[in-house]
Design brief:
This protein is an all-alpha fold. The chain has three helices and no strands. The longest helix is centred in the C-terminal third of the chain and has 24 residues, at about 30-50. The mean pLDDT is about 90.
Amino acid sequence: MNTDGEVQLMYFLFRYKNWEPQKYKQLGYGSKKIVRQFMYQQLEDMAKEYDALGGGNNG
């Protein structure tokens, strides 16, 4: 997705958490910061799970 990080985050929340973009937009600065860190953690966890299942193995 070729767009800024906030739009990418709103897409992630929409796609994986069923959040409407407006739900994120209404959050305060501190809450947005926490949500962003949770997203980074989930992406890291998802990548580890993918690798553990052999998804990162090319051979």
